[in-house]
Design a protein that fits this description.
- The protein is an alpha+beta fold and about 90 residues long.
- Helices cover about 35% and strands about 25% of the residues.
- It has one domain: Histidine-containing Protein, Chain: A, CATH 3.30.1340.
- The protein contains three helices and four strands.
- Strands 1-4-2-3 form a four-stranded antiparallel beta sheet, covered by helices on one side.
- Strand 2 and strand 3 form a beta hairpin.
- Helix 1 packs antiparallel against helix 3.
- The chain starts with a strand and ends in a 6-residue tail after the last helix.
- The relative contact order is 0.31.
Length: about 90
């Protein structure tokens, strides 16, 4: 299962192309897979189109999941971006 973090999308525009790209860039730094889960649908966090396909407006609850505990710093960095509203809020 890996490690997970429950988060709420806080920025006004939700997960759009620019925010999805930020997440994907950070997820690519992980040694193993990083996933975003919304309503049971799990997508690869390195895939911008998959992230955007989740449709996550402001207020959406998501789960970040990493497969390898060694990637905890990546999980933390992605969570920080989401919690800060990607500097947009």
């Amino acid at each position: 299962m890996g490690l997970t973090r429950n988060l709420t999308i806080t920025n006004e525009l939700g997960l759009h192309a620019r925010t999805a790209a930020k997440i994907a860039r950070l997820a690519e730094e992980a040694d193993d897979n990083v996933y975003i889960i919304k309503d049971g649908q799990e997508v690869d966090a390195t895939d911008i189109l998959d992230i955007m396909g989740l449709y996550c407006p402001r207020g959406t609850r998501i789960i970040l999941r990493i497969a390898d505990p060694a990637d905890m710093k990546v999980l933390d960095r992605i969570a920080e971006q989401i919690e800060s509203g990607f500097g947009e809020s």
